[in-house]
Each structure stands twice: as C-alpha cells, then as structure tokens.
Q: What sequence folds into this?
C-alpha cells in the first residue's frame, strides 16, 4: 500500500513541476495615431511560463491592432485567449507556434493574447502593438487558405537543398468594411533587409526587426523584392545560409480607378527573420559540411595563387587545370540533372571526371599545340565567368529572363563574345585569364571562412542550371564590408599577377611548342652528312627534352 502511495505522490510532484506558471502583463495603448506603433518592448519570459497580455486605454481613433511577438532562435506559442474562453460556436481559435508571430484584433473590445514559453531556458521576447484606423488595409484580411481567419504575418519556406527562399503573405483587405475584397484591391509589396553576415546575436536580430516594423523605416532601410511570380502574394529569392534576412510585406490601398489616393493608406505585416539554417545546430550554417568539400575548397587558395602568378610559365599545368575545371563544372551539372546525390559523392565524382578532362585537353595540346586553339578553352572559361558575374549583378524581376531559352541564349552569347574578343590577342589574353581566374580561386576559401558572398557568383549560376524553379529567384546578394575587402584583394591579386607574369615572360617566345615538335638530331647509320668546305663548322647534336619553359623557337644545341 505504501508503495502505491509513493508512486502517486511522485506523479503528482512531476505534474506540479511541469505546470506552466501564468502571469499578466498590462499594455496601455493611449499613444497618438501619428505613430502606428502603439507599444514596443523587450520582456523576459521565464521557462515553462505563460504571460497574458491585457490592453487598456485604447486610443479612440484606432479600429484594429496587430499584436506581434519575436523570439530569438527558440519557438514560443501565441494564442487568442478571448477566443478560447468564449468559444461557444466551436470555431477555430488562433494558436501559433514559431519565432515571429502576430495576431489581429479589432478594438471593440480587443482580444486578450498570451505567449507561452515551453523551452527549458528563459527567453527575451520582443513584443509590439501597431494600431490602424478603419480605412487602413488589414494585413491578411482577404486570406482564403489556412485555419486562421486573418493572419497578419509573413511566412517563409526553404527549398529542400536550401537553394532559395519562398516568401508569402496572405492578401490584404482594403479596410474593415465588409465585402471589400470583392470590390477593390490593395497592392502588396515585399521588402528585405540583410543582417550582418554570420552575426547570430540577439541585438542584431531585434535591431533588424525594429527597423522593418513601420512603413517609413521600411522605405528608408529596406530593399524591395521584385515580383517574378504571377501571384502577387509570393516572392522567391536566392538563399544565402548564415546571412540573416528580415522580410516584411506592406499593403498599400489603391482606389477603384487604379490610382493611388492623395493620402494613401498602408499597413505592415509582422516581419520575419530567416538565416536559412539553424545557428543552434553545429555546422548547420556551413555551405560545405563534409571533409572532402572543405579540403578541395582549401586547396583552391594554393592553386589560385599558382595560376595567378605562374600559370602562363607552366603552360602544361595550365592546360591541365583549365581542362579539369571545365570537366568539373560540366560533370556536376549533368549529374545533378540526371540523378539526386549527396554533396560529398557528387563533388567527388565531378572531381574525378575533371581529372580525366584535364588529361584529355593536355593530350590535345601535346599533339597539336596551336596557341589559338590551346587558349580557346581558357578564354571560354573566362567568358563563362564573365557571364556568371553579369547574372550575379543583373537586376531582379526581368520577366524576359525567366524563360530558360532566353536566359541561356544570353548567357552563351556573353560567353562566346568574351572569348572572341580575347582570342585574337592570344598571349596577353592567356595571362589575363590566368590572373583573374586564379585570383578568384584564391579568395574563394577566404570568402568561405569569412561568411561573405562572392562565392555565389559561381554557385548561383550552377543553381540556375540544376535547381528546379530557381529562375524565379531574385539574387540581390548582400554586399557588406567583408565583400568590399575581398573584391579589393581580388583586384590587387589579379593586377599584380598579370604584371608579374608579363614582366617575367618579357623577351621570351609567347608559347612553348608541343613536345611532339621537338626531335632528337639524327646520328649513326643512315644519317645524311652535308659535304662542304673544310672551314664549315661541325654540326652539333643534342637531345632536347620537353619542359614547360621550352621556347617555341628553340634551336638545336642552344
């Protein structure tokens, strides 16, 4: 009997230990309407606790409010307590779980809201209340999907391999008036603000959200995301894991004749933040998470410096390296289109195929060795890179380039045009390509370590070729101090590499001959000896061996 009593006491103690502690937080909403933000504060929410929010002294001009909550990294729960307490019609009540949440409520009266922290640690939570008048658009007021009647927040989703982000916001209602969704419409514009690269701090997180809460601040600091889909409620942008992005939608009222009012009405959705990864998981924000990829990336520093300063001097090595690079790119794209593979085996297979391509191109030069043809692959690679840079910087929202046929036609045109321009000047073009591409390869692992985004010059092009629906993604890469410093380093390496190679090869033949053109002088039986005067100097014979510095016009015995 005592045994059962102890078990019961233990169960009761466990239940009491898991009980959520509740408290009440009163918010006064008596601010003037000149500022739509009626209240904003960062509060502490204890572990296993629930806070009820009650609103008093509501400004008489306010017709509805948006109550929003933001938690850094950890999910919390928000719900409409008034709905749950007075749910006599068994309607769906609003309960949300996440890090960037918001609820809509009219002011007659305002519903009581609550936030629950079920995590094992105390959290700091940013709460804010924004108020709007009767004529202002209602965020999410024309929502047709989902269990929540009026969801005033922005939602994000990421592609399976984290290549792009989809941002959606339910259609707004022009005002609180009934049936307005069928009579008129509002424009819905999306904005983005990048947080500092690899900065997962709470201060940066809350600072970015505060900046994107009100429409004037959004216009000042945010960057508009162009529309690429036929649906106005959705945007797609390229993903940059590890770089936080604050995303928000703004509803702007437009009257029936399609022109903006003299005093346009607007409202902002609850902003959201995405890192495209979880900073709470070790190495989740790294682009290369396997040892093979990291080793190959690190080796680019030494290979890039070698090509930047000695590429033209060691011509056979250059031919092999550019053949291998072309093989890696082609194989990676083809395998990605044909089959689904993990990153490590895909990169490994591409690397092995690239080695084969390198030997094939080296063999081609070995037997033919025509400088124009030998450098053609180098200039084509440079043209490919020039087209990648153009795609990296091209403005988003160009509907003409959404079609793959138009995009790849333009891409190949830029690639071929660059090669045609460079090929006639074979010698300086080869040095230029080695210097520029070698410098980029050298800064690539540095970019990876710093968490900047110059590496996406090449990555976004590969994504466009291999990822389904990536044509709708707006690139607009972040550009911060680290990116500017790396570009400066890139320019310095390319410039010094070009000048060094040009100076080092002065007075020398521009290209070495292929080894098959170098022959051993004949001796012994069957050789032809020229009969001439006794004063003629004897013929000198020497065995010439091929090396990477053998001049094109080499003479026997010299």
A:
């Amino acid at each position: 009997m005592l045994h059962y009593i102890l078990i019961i006491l233990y169960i009761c103690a466990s239940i009491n230990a898991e009980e959520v502690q509740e408290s009440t937080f009163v918010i006064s909403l008596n601010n003037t309407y000149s500022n739509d933000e009626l209240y904003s504060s960062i509060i502490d929410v204890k572990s296993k606790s629930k806070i009820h929010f009650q609103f008093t002294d509501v400004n008489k001009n306010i017709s509805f409010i948006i109550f929003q909550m933001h938690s850094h990294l950890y999910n919390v729960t928000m719900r409409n307590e008034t709905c749950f307490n007075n749910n006599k019609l068994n309607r769906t009540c609003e309960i949300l779980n996440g890090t960037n949440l918001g609820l809509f409520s009219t002011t007659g009266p305002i519903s009581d809201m609550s936030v629950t922290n079920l995590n094992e640690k105390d959290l700091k939570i940013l709460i804010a209340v924004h108020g709007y008048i009767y004529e202002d658009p209602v965020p999410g007021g024309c929502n047709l999907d989902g269990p929540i009647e009026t969801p005033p927040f922005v939602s994000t989703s990421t592609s399976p391999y984290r290549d792009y982000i989809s941002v959606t916001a339910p259609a707004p209602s022009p005002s609180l008036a009934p049936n307005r969704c069928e009579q008129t419409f509002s424009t819905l514009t999306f904005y983005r603000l990048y947080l500092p690269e690899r900065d997962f701090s709470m201060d940066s997180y809350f600072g970015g959200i505060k900046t994107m809460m009100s429409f004037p601040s959004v216009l000042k600091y945010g960057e508009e995301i162009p529309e690429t889909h036929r649906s106005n409620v959705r945007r797609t942008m390229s993903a940059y894991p590890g770089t936080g992005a604050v995303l928000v939608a703004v509803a702007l009222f437009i009257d029936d004749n399609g022109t903006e009012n003299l005093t346009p009405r607007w409202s902002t959705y609850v902003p959201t933040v995405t890192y495209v990864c979880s900073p709470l998981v070790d190495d989740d924000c790294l682009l290369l998470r396997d040892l093979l990829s990291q080793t190959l990336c690190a080796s680019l520093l030494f290979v890039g410096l070698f090509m930047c300063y000695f590429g033209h001097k060691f011509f056979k090595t250059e031919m092999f390296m550019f053949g291998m690079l072309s093989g890696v790119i082609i194989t990676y794209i083809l395998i990605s289109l044909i089959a689904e593979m993990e990153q490590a085996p895909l990169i490994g297979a591409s690397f092995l195929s690239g080695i084969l391509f390198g030997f094939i191109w080296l063999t081609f030069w070995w037997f033919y060795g025509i400088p124009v043809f030998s450098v053609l692959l180098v200039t084509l690679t440079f043209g490919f890179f020039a087209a990648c840079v153009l795609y990296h910087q091209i403005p988003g929202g160009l509907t003409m380039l959404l079609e793959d046929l138009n995009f790849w036609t333009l891409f190949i045109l830029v690639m071929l045009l660059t090669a045609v321009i460079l090929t006639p000047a074979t010698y300086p073009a080869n040095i230029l390509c080695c210097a520029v591409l070698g410098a980029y390869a050298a800064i690539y692992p540095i970019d990876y370590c710093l968490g900047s985004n110059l590496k996406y010059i090449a990555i976004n092009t590969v994504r466009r070729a291999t990822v389904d629906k990536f044509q709708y993604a707006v690139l607009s890469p972040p550009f911060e101090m680290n990116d500017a410093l790396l570009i400066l380093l890139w320019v310095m390496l390319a410039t010094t590499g070009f000048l060094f190679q040009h100076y080092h090869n002065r007075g020398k033949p521009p290209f070495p001959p292929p080894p098959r053109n170098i022959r051993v002088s004949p001796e012994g039986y069957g050789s032809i000896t020229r009969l001439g005067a006794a004063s003629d100097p004897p013929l000198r014979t020497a065995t010439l061996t091929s090396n990477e510095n053998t001049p094109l016009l080499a003479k026997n015995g010299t």
